[in-house]
Amino acid sequence: MSMHKSLPAVALALAFGTGTALAESPGLGKPITEADIAAWNIEILPDGTGLPPGSGTAAQGAKIYAEKCSSCHGDNGVKPAQGYLPMVGPTKFDRIDTMKTVPYYKYATTLYDVMRRSMPYPMPKTLTADELYALSAYILALNKIIGENDVMNAETLPKVKMPNADNFIIWNPEKI
Amino acid sequence: MSKRRHGGVPPVEAVAGNGLLDRRALLGRGVILAGAMGTGVGTSLTGAAAEPLQNDPWSLEMGAVVPPYQVPSRFEKGVIRTRSNPDNEFRNSHARTPHHLLQGTVTPNGLFFTISHSGLPDIDPAQHKLVIHGLVKQPLVYTVESLSRYPMVSRMHFVECSGNSAPMFSNEPFQGTAQALHGLASNAEWTGVLLSTLLEETGIDPKAKWLLAEGADSLGLHRSVPVKKALDDAMIALYQNGERIQPGNGYPMRLLLPGYQGNMNIKHVRRIKLIDQPAMSFYESKTYSQILPDGKMWLFHFTQEVKSFITHPSFGQSLKGPGFYEISGIAYSGNGRISKVMVSADGGKSWAQAALQAPVNPKAFTRFRMPWRWDGQPVILQSRAWDEGGNVQPLRAEFVAARGQTEKPVASPLAFPNQHYNSITSWGIDSSGGIKHVYA
After folding, report:
1. Structural domain spans, chain A
2. Going by fewer Cβ within 10 Å, which terminus of chain B is more open, N or C?
């Protein structure tokens, strides 16, 4: 609930002050190149930054989903196991407790990102770039957000128009 | 002595409806407190004298040898966290703090709440690394050992899941303890290195507006944090109440963002990347975005707003007859210090100011206390907190008008109908001393 007022922004200056006051920084961080961070550097940003080469379709994704996803998330994205999310869900959010699944996301890149870093749950970070594009296409098509034959790749995925995208408001822009 | 107690001290006057007494009866005026307690004992229903004292068995034999790491008495075996996944199913799990069985403000490490989305990783601290990269001048890698040589700070801060108190979105009051309702918040002394110290070493490209923080857990759980917050009071915490952070709370290091929703305080943090846009991670895009009654959704509701609830007395306890009781509870705000807590015993018709236990730390639990003489009639106890930023805990009607409630009653504390509930909690006490959760 946004019944708040901002506190004076002196804390920011203080934080800088504290750092500056350290006449001698311990300097114990070891330099590393971005190339050597690559194995961890896996996030996908909403504008598509980070998306790897590759592509996939819903038809390809259906096979991967049946093999690697459906045991938890349910056949065709519905009726998941207890404690797991369905992949198909409401596109209208007219109750405060409406179930939020893929159609809730503001950006389609979120789907690719979460599968890339977290899925499949028992063996995360094992899906290939092509598998991830194919699964993205399959799940977006199941929700009728894209067409059955649309190809997902680094160019098309960030451009997918999500059905709920225009309904988000930033809670308190001053705090960002 | 008893003559002086009963004869020399004027009775404490009620300062609000249904027997709330002046808070100064508790603090700084011990004689008055003794007088109030004396009155309570004198008017208790039992009124019987104590039995003659005898030596118990433990006073007549040697006890157990001290263990290397001590645990509570076996008689305290009921003071434990309640768990969402007691059968160890292959899914997420969480455990809640038993506020109604604790006192003071520090949550013992074994009772600190945990939410784990993919189990507790078994991290070797000698192998763990933290990299800071992206829009920086020089990417750097830190280890537990290297961070241990940095200047550290110790600060009391609460951590609260933004889904805490979510059963209170129910249109009918969910019957549960303060643990079931509010157990996804805990408070500890955190010790670690300010993130600003490390960012000074890496340097920050002015284009950086956000940082992505990511854990070493199997989900690689990640959240976006404004750089402004990172330079304010963010910490890479290594210690929790003096010992290394518990596995369920982020071993061997976590990002601590005082006052921000729990999920952003990335546990097992291994990567911080400065970026020019929010990452729109799974958790910020979905779970921790709130649907509003008008069909809009909030993004980036980071701050845990001002809140309080009474822990003593509360659901799961009962009053043993009329007389003196101390009402006490917890107040906290992600905006800063608690400035005031008001307590009502008549469902909000009248209020009296509670005593705040010092020290009152910013973005930390504050214990409030209120002396009370119960006359045995039905009452409704409530607390309402203010913080130093002038923010006030909303009344339920105000909160529901702004944030809504469910159409059907919430059946389980494991349901999370929405997020960021910070309205007041009401305990209804009947004439037999039974306590229910009510809306008032």
Report:
1. 42-167
2. N
B contacts of A105 (beta carbons < 8 Å): 280, 285-286
CATH superfamily of B129-298: Oxidoreductase, molybdopterin-binding domain (3.90.420.10)
Residue B137: closest CA among chain A residues belongs to which residue? A31
Round to whole Å and give the CA distance between A128 and A115: 10
What's the mean pLDDT when you consider all of chain A? 89
The predicted-structure confidence for B346-372, as pLDDT tens digits, reads as follows: 999 999 999 999 999 999 999 999 999
Chain A contact set for B225 (CB, 8 A): none
Which CATH number is associated with domain B307-438? 2.60.40.650
The CATH number, out of the four listed (1.10.10.10, 3.90.1010.10, 1.10.760.10, 3.30.360.10), of the domain defined by the range A42-167? 1.10.760.10
Helices (H), B164-258: 178-182, 195-202, 227-232
Mean pLDDT value across chain B: 93
CA distance A48 to chain B (A): 10
CB < 8 Å to A46, chain B: 277-280
* ipTM of this complex: 0.90
Q: Do B295 and A94 touch (CB under 8 A)?
A: yes
**Among the partner residues A83, A114, A171, nearest to B89 by beta-carbon distance:** A83
User: How would DSSP label each residue in B308-365?
Assistant: EEEEES-BTBB--SSEEEEEEEEEE-TTS-EEEEEEESBTTSS-EEPEEPSP--TTS-
